[in-house]
Fold each of these.
Amino acid sequence: MAKDFDVVVIGAGPGGYVAAVRAAQLGKSVACIEKWKNPKGELALGGTCLNVGCIPSKALLASSEEFEKVSHHLADHGITVEGAKIDLAKMLARKEGIVTKMTKGIEFLFRKNKITWLKGHGKFVSKGDAGYQIEVSGEGEAETVTARNVIIATGSKARHLPFAKVDGTLVADNEGALSFDSVPKKLAVIGAGVIGLELGSVWRRLGADVTVLEALPEFLGACDVGVAKEAAKIFKKQGLDIHLSVKIGSVTTSDKGVSIQYADKDGNAQTLDADRLIVSVGRVPNTDNLGLENIGLGVTERGFIEVDDHCRTKLPNVYAIGDVVRGPMLAHKAEDEGVLVAEVIDGQKPHIDYNCIPWVIYTSPEIAWVGKTEQQLKAEGREIKAGQFPFSVNGRALGINAAEGFVKVIADAKTDEVLGVHIIGPNASDLIAEAAVAMEFKAASEDIARICHPHPSLSEVMREAALAADKRAINM
């Protein structure tokens, strides 16, 4: 096996494997280092996203949504179902089957593109005239390879709390919360962010009584304020009990479950007893034990690697992408950066507009946005106009019994350029792509409004919101 490569990627998550594939497409000799092992002890590609993140969580979200439909919503369609039951083991097996199919798919892509998978942990050893020496260890005898270019794509891990030891059973992070062996009667979640809301929603739909404790005073502070208010109202109606401005004191476990001591927003001492606890308080970059000090590369106080707009570190031919660098910790952001770096190495001049990267929360209804919020634009002193249109009067939304939420289009008051689009509603993750395309092309709200959208479809709500920005919505 070759010991020197044009490009070595450390990490085979969405950023890393995409970077490897694109570099190979461009004719480079490529190796990718990955040490992840699945629950069976087998080495697997795909990183956190495919193994214990995006893919398995969406599988469980879909399964739990189907159960909720059968249990509570099919009667609206004139369909009566009695005695619906959950086979949790089969549900989890379905999830694992999807994960395996996806990770094996990346193995196929590696073979197709002649990418060498170096199995183990990658660590910088030194820099020489021929490039960077990287040790790969953990699977058999350690070996050292040389890379003319290195892409660090090691992703992130769940942030843990010092007073809440994660054991994966009673106290779980995102990984353990995807594999509970039974539906908890009472589930506590610390953190009302994306992961906390998604996983809390899964287990609520399957029958858990869910309480979410959030330290911040605002709910979904990153969202447009109108979307956040709508989401809080809908989630409360669904049964998620969300408490804001909470200060956690201690977490103790026993044979009976988990007990959380906390102070509420008024400073009053409270106790929450639950069968299980999910800790979802953000993520931290995986930059430890990479041997960065051996090549003179440091990290920030928060563990991130500093890079420029093209993901270059301060060292020549060393790049970093995805969760280990600035910007949102999103799989598709990492993918775009992977492509960008491969093309930079090839001598091309690619570009990413980070303002056009969409965000999604896969609750029900889904929440998605791209660009800036109304509160951000007003804080900048930007003159804006906004159009909002509800799903409640859309024929397709009514037909599929998913008529909650709205689309909001924000544009510059003078030029009409679209500055942000915010959606809470059915299929928001798909609908937001139109907004991202519009913003990439610097479209005006009038451009969206003039495009013929199919009828009946959810996409018509996007068009109506764009029309509403000019106060000429047709169906309101």
Note: The chain has a mean pLDDT of 97.
Amino acid sequence: MNEILKKYMSQFTSLEEAEQQAIIDSLDIAEVKKGTDLLRQGDTPTKCYFVLQGCIRQYSLDEMGKETTSNFYTEEQAISLFNHDKEATFSAYTFTSVEDSILVIGDLDEEEEMYDKHNQLETMTRKMMEEAFGQAQDNFATFISLSPEERYQSVLVKRPTLIHRVPQHQLASYLGMTPESLSRIKKRVDHRTS
């Protein structure tokens, strides 16, 4: 796991190996079981996460109790919790592990202290957030412009492991369709490629 973190830090910083190791040594790395809620909709965020191994689902419940999946975070993805420093900010989403996962868990209250101690860490965090924001914008634009079948095919190309890692009803929600529609689309696409 250390090598994954070092590779990621090298991508966004010019930290020496000793400083990378010092940061890694100060991190809380934890295993979470499938079905563990990291944060529930309506709770105040106190932690941030980086997925070393596994899959985390982001979803929300509407007034009628309908779940809408808005993202899946997998290996080497940071779960960005924006506006955590505002008073009385509550999460609009629940984050739940879809698989047994290994996560780096950061304490949002200790974030400034970590930045003071390791000044390139703040730059790395900013770059990670910019990258995540850019991906979110691209995903949103793709979602709006593509048909349901094209959305499914986009996932097959960009995130093919999701197809086998998450339950079909969650994937369907993520793609903005019913499980039945997804099943029909999968059959059509599979038939064309076989």
Note: The domain at 2-145 is CATH 2.60.120.10 (Jelly Rolls).
Amino acid sequence: MTLWTSDEAVAATGGTTATPWEATGVSIDTRTLEPGDMFVALKDVRDGHDFVAQALANGAACALVSRIPDGVPADAPLLVVDDVLTGLEALGRAARARTDAKIIGVTGSVGKTSTKEMLRTALTGQGKIHAAEKSYNNHWGVPLTLARMPKDTGFAVIEIGMNHPGEIAPLAKLARPHVALITIVAPAHLEAFASVEDIAREKAAIFDGLEDGGIAIINADLDTTPILRDLAPAACQTFGTTEGADWQLLDAVTSASATSCRARHAGEAILFKLGAPGRHFAMNGLACLAAAQAAGADLGRAAVALSDWTPPSGRGQRRFIHLDAQMPEQGIDLFDDAYNANPASVGAALDVLAAATPPDPAGRKVAILGDMKELGPTEIALHAGFARHPAMDEITQVHCVGPLMKHLYDALPSSKQGLWAATSTELADSPLALVRAGDVLMIKGSLSMKMAQIVDAVAKLGQSVADNQEGHR
């Protein structure tokens, strides 16, 4: 199915092309480019123009460029614009303008990607759904997601993130959501912000892009809720455990592989289930249902569909690592939460670990924690403070990675101290020193800490299978 014709793309960007073409997709990476894609020659660590010839050889329908690259003939299918990123933004703006889709914008310090994926699942069967396959939420990720949106999309979920002040508003104005959801405001990126209150104001900038009559959905349980409410439009709904919240979570009961939730909205009971344990997932699920209904979806169908959601790899996914093919009950219960970390998400992960039951009665609850980045002057206190987190009472041992987590390691009682290493590679080299058969293990840290190396090392100890498959108990 054609996504962009050359005429449409020229009209959208003001660029020029020497030959007609039709593109079925949009790509920024030759490694994942599909035949028929438009290749966008963005400049990042490498200049995308250096890969245009390869993209065309791999079947790209055209390339979005700001100059004719070396080795590429002038009559090649190129869309030439003044600036590639500006051109991509123009494509995103045009894609947004030509669709009748209901757009849901999602931001927050924690839970953006999980909530985006929950919405993708919950909206199943109620229209054609468009959402990025990854965490494409920055200055190029949002326009890329929009530029990939088919004309006949029914619902689009656009994740919007930030690292510095002033980043959310222009992305929100590009996406022009009908519904704007803020999952939570928490200490993150404090190197760039003076306070959590300033983070709340930046998150609330998503409302700057709301369509006329658009609906804001905010967390009712935060210290910064009054700030969000003051900056939200009149059509604002709240979710949380707080009495009086428009969408109130009444109960969330976790099992080994699921969370069963009971909530209330407009005086009516809502029951829904999620394919992972965690109260934070329950909150995201409730926010997802609020956003789905605000976008015009059927609430009952969304609640039923939501039960099919499970977290992606690195974001709370649960796996069982079989250590003996002849003894399927022998193994390690692994919570892979290694993708990223900040104080709120680490606290939630510790709560999940504390509530878990090891696969063996003699098994331990073990955490491996890597540094949380971009926390500014409070970084030492925020790391060391987890020694006093209530969940620590239930956790047997904690291994730490990185100079900042050394402060947590030193603050822990000696009975809980496992290993400390400066890098994840050091711990990944000795997985048998970290965990043993019968344990439940949680791994989490900021993306730059490469905690996925430890996940991979533990997984290689045995055969990893999905938690819901038979034979793991």
Note: The chain has three domains: 4-85, 99-308, 317-466.
